[in-house]
Amino acid sequence: MSQRGPRLTELTLSAEELEQLQRWIRRRKSAQDLAQRSRIVLECATGASNSKVAGQVGVSLPTVRKWRNRFLEHRLDGLVDEPRPGRPATISVDKVEQVVVDTLESTPKNATHWSRSTMAEKSGLSKSTVGRIWKAFGLKPHLEEGFKLSNDPLFTEKVYDIVGLYLNPPESAVVLSVDEKSQVQALTRSQPAFPMTVGTPERRSHDYVRHGTTSLFAALNVSDGTVISSVHRRHRAVEFKKFLIKIDKTVPAHLDVHVVCDNYSTHKHPTIRNWLAKRPRFHMHFTPTYSSWINQVERLFAEVTRDLLQRSDHRSVQALEKDLREWVKAWNEDPKPFIWTKTAEEILESIARYLKRINGAGH
């Protein structure tokens, strides 16, 4: 059978290139892009086709073609610095690697993270060059993200349980995502807002006067997006029981009620347990600890924050509560369910990949 497509140019590595590529892959904190490019070149050096390399590394076929050709043309330098037309590369691969390594594995004196100025001073490069290197490898020393991994021993079981409710809800039942948005503040800005004009956004004073707080209790029907809600000044077990009673009266009697909620103490209070024991149609499903992302009602709270609370101006708690009720009423006139797409397996695989990345496994 004749070969399909053009014949690939043979890619061979010198001993020094092989050692350098393997070092980039093994380094615990190597930039992910550089490690991936190194793996592509090493696989290509085995004589494998571009399509086979794409499958082995987990990238697209055009990506393999790009880095094979870049290596053949510029060797190691081609993996770390985009070539500029008419201008040869002036920064060595070792210099670029040192900037990446210093950024990932060290901090400047008397500072918690590198800036372009401090890295330029250390490396001897210009600030703009440091910026280009950081951009090429997705490094942003000035940013940080917080995270909290669940320590729930039943994490996997709870993910399967709740995601199963979202993707395959039981027959003759309603699935409600329930929570309280507590301590919602009635705020009055110290000065009236300046309205938006052409070329100028709306301007609001940064300081305000507090007039008290309230809590929005919400139960989101995950299948149709409708919301059952209540507003209470406090969010104790007493108020949560009142909200459950409202749910009980609202949901048709022939349907079971599956409630997804977090592990807040009021949700497991003896008063609540006693009430639930007398109503067998209610089934409680508790989210894993530190996993509010799996409770769909949090998306609803994000919507009400963006639409109403972010720029709110209320001179009393009563006015705030009135607006919250009106917002829910308007939502229910045209409800929009949040479509859950990821399976439990996909979620768990994603978390496993993240743990592998932050722990440096495989590098």
- State which percent range the strand residues make up: 5-15%
Q: Percentage of helical residues?
A: 40-55%
Structural class by sheet pairing and helices = alpha/beta
Q: What spatial form do the alpha-carbon principal axes imply?
A: elongated
Describe this structure in a few short sentences:
The chain has 363 residues and is α/β, with parallel strands linked by helices.
Task: Set out the fold topology.
Layout: H1 15-26, H2 32-44, H3 50-57, H4 61-74, H5 93-105, H6 116-123, H7 127-136, H8 155-167, E1 173-189, E2 208-221, E3 227-232, H9 237-250, E4 256-261, H10 270-277, E5 282-286, H11 297-309, H12 317-333, H13 344-358
Parallel strand pairs: 1-4, 4-5
Antiparallel strand pairs: 1-2, 2-3
Helix pairs in contact: 1-2, 2-3, 2-4, 3-4, 6-7, 8-13
Account of the protein in words:
This protein is of the alpha/beta class. Helices cover 44% and strands 13% of the residues. Among the domains are: 72 residues, no CATH class; 175 residues, 2-Layer Sandwich (Nucleotidyltransferase, domain 5), CATH 3.30.420. The protein is built from 13 helices and 5 strands. It has a 5-stranded mixed beta sheet, with helices on both faces.
